Amino acid sequence: MRLDHQIIKELIASRSSVLDLGCGDGELLSLLIKEKQAQGQGIEIDEQEIYKCVEKGLNIIHGDIDSGLHEYRDKSFDYIILNQSLQQVKNFDEVFTDALRVGKHVVAGLPNFAYYQARIQLAIRGKAPVTKSLPYSWYNSPNVHFFSLNDFKDYCREKHIIIESNVCLDSRRRISFLPNLFAQVGIFLVHK
């Protein structure tokens, strides 16, 4: 099991309702349904990923999360999950605000663009970084927003979003020492 999925699973209460925005192939959503007895739904834009979700028997809607969650009532899900998808949306603030409206809690899994290996590649080689957590070349990257874990914390502070929990990871373990430098990924449990 992927380490970020394990951490997210730990954050989700059993028998809760979950909406996974940008759910990809549905691996995380499937895990939460099986191991946490969650009632889950996903939204995904990529048709090939939707086929994988359907093969797993998941309830998936084909949609673009940038267009909003207007069809959902306030606090209609216990958790909204945005794992490795927030950096790819065009309208970060609108998507995140909508997620906070629809979910009682939001779990945001974010790549850290300030990870030391990315910094070294940019500083020494003078090239856009490619790392395990940022595997794309500059010209084919789906990423639109390039932010650090500290940037996200500042955003939450500015918007009066409460960070309940924050776990930082590299590819193998939790990182607690200088996470903005040494963590590849940050997972935040937040609410408004």
Task: Show the helix and strand layout.
Layout: H1 3-11, E1 17-21, H2 27-36, E2 39-44, H3 47-55, E3 60-62, E4 77-83, H4 92-102, E5 103-111, H5 116-125, H6 149-158, E6 162-169, H7 179-182, E7 185-191
Parallel strand pairs: 1-2, 1-4, 2-3, 4-5
Antiparallel strand pairs: 5-7, 6-7
CATH topology: Rossmann fold
Structural class: alpha/beta
Estimate the strand proportion: 15-25%
Number of domains: 1
For the residues shown, what is the average pLDDT? Answer: 93
By CATH reckoning, the class would read: Alpha Beta
Low-confidence sequence ranges: none
Computed CA radius of gyration, to the nearest angstrom: 16 Å
Strand order of the largest sheet: 3-2-1-4-5-7-6
Helix content: 25-40%
Query: What general outline do the C-alpha atoms trace?
Result: globular
Let me know the CATH homologous superfamily.
Vaccinia Virus protein VP39
Number of helices: 7
Q: Which oligomeric form is depicted?
A: single chain
**What is the correct CATH architecture?**
3-Layer(aba) Sandwich
- How would you characterize the largest beta sheet? 7 strands, mixed
The string of secondary-structure elements, in order, is HEHEHEEHEHHEHE
